[in-house]
């Protein structure tokens, strides 16, 4: 098992332009509060860049993306309070609000929008379509299915970023190792989130390979979580989570219901394991955000346009384990396997 080393694969920029400095088509006016300048020399000491961050929901995974994004920018010399102004807005898992936030950022003529999660990215793309404002997204499971990238990874417009595509096969391998006798896996998902629909397709294609069947239950809002859990828990041996924003917001309810039924819940990343899931073969979202921040820095410096950069993703995952949850559910995890964990937690929730 990998020890949590996160490696990134830079999916090559468009062959026509590469990753070098932009040509004369970079700017229409030579200035640029939102076109990011006509050359890399536009980054000067007295220039303050304004970035609007639109985060779709308030939970640990997306918060980590935002933290990492600012960290990645700072590592590249763009520091909040010095040459960087951040306007942060949270849509509270409401698509309509995400659209309003994006439109407001356009009205404020920001230099860039950072969109965290698929609904915010889609809203930002639509709002900026007739502008020169670049959009850098993160925590998008499937940019192609979301309509933000072409099949070859090239942007559909002045928008690019990073994908948090789940390592589904590694997750299934982990579940089989921890629960050798399990037969059915359950997934709760939000029917309006295309990222979740994409991940479910991946699970449907792979569960049979590991001797599982799959049960799914769709929800519309966080208020649906209790009844959905009551429904699915009668049919499954375990639950595995996606990076589904509504479900993650209802994680405490999900875990509480599952624990009462003595059924483990597997997470998709570190924060879910910290907060009561048994384990995850997942991603580390601060690192994902840092990667996004480095991409944003290239655009701010004028080294490349967002429209010239294919989206990027993290390809390696790591095991995260919560021994307190294992003990509570009377699940024994092989000691040699547990020793491969990137990080182990011994608390249930925060």
Task: Tell me about this structure.
It is a single chain. The chain is of the alpha/beta class and 350 residues long. It has 2 domains: 8-164 and 284-314, Response regulator (Rossmann fold), CATH 3.40.50.2300; 168-282 and 317-345, Rossmann fold (3-Layer(aba) Sandwich), CATH 3.40.50.2300. Helices cover 34% and strands 19% of the residues. It has 12 helices and 14 strands. The protein has helices at 60-75, 95-107, 118-128, 168-178, 194-206, 225-232, 245-249, 251-260, 270-274, 285-300, 323-328, 335-338; strands at 8-9, 49-55, 84-90, 112-116, 135-140, 159-163, 184-190, 213-219, 238-240, 265-266, 279-282, 312-314, 318-322, 343-345. The longest helix is centred in the first third of the chain and has 16 residues, at 60-75. The protein is elongated, with a radius of gyration of 21 Å. The two termini are 28 Å apart.
Name the descriptors.
7-stranded mixed sheet; Rossmann fold; 34% helix; elongated; 350 residues; 2 domains; alpha/beta; 4-stranded parallel sheet; disordered N terminus
